Amino acid sequence: MIERIAGSEDAGKRLDHFLKDRFPEYSRARLQQWIKAGRVLVDGHPAKASASLRGGERVQLEPAAAAPLHAEPEDLPLEILYEDGAVIAVNKPAGMVVHAGAGVGAGTLVNALLHRFAHLSKAGGCERPGIVHRLDRFTSGVILVARDDASHQQLARQFASRQVGKTYLALVHGSVRQDTGRIDKPVARDPVRRTRMTTRTKSGRAAWTEFRVLRRFARFTFLEVKIGTGRTHQIRVHLASIGHPVAGDTLYGAPSRPAGAPPLERWFLHAWRIRFRSPASAEIVTVTAPLPKELEDWMHALL
Predict the structure, then answer these.
(1) 273 bridge partner residues
(2) pTM value > 0.70
(3) Fewest CB within 10 angstroms: 109, 121, 221, 297, which?
């Protein structure tokens, strides 16, 4: 049984959010499962994930043993950008799901990783070996994978404490007026359309996104985007909230066939660069994933 005391800064925080902040080495899904199974006690009693803390509570977590690994190795193309004794950086293509779920059981990044590497961290759960963070299915770019549990926990703490630098490239609809800007809007699940996130509720989690204009086109703007938080769909929903949805992202308002532009079978969002401290060497490592050719070609077609 692991114990943490909720501080005054945790007042008003949901139990599941508190657990994710205090136990970043475990996935959100695993923590939710343990709450439902009664493995989380607040002042000695089971509580719901949505329970609001007041501060001062004694929160106890009894982790369950990891289930047997279910994901199967598959011989799939895998571009390795960097690796050392603790971490692997992969260039994920658009269209590839990171791990199984929501009706996808094969062809994932995890399946490819299991074929290539004999040992990966199991701290994220049996379906997510090695996975420290995620990218949306149609977002390409660099993603970090942990080789062992200790490295996973160190990397997870860096993400939780916002020590990891994440830079994206995005092409958005319209002319972004400012050359630089920052979006500070909380992000929450859309209560009406559950597949979307929204910035229009007061119950969202704090999130900030910074952008810088790299190039302007007649009807689009090419941006460098940095995020200090990693909320679900954060860049997509933030940019859409200021009237500039990511090209190809119909979920957040982009047209399926932009006038005067060729069809785009994905959205124009790429995880370009990541900066972190390697658990193997304690050195700062920067990994860059080049913009995919299909995005380069699509952007050049706008000229």
Answers:
(1) 167, 288
(2) yes
(3) 297
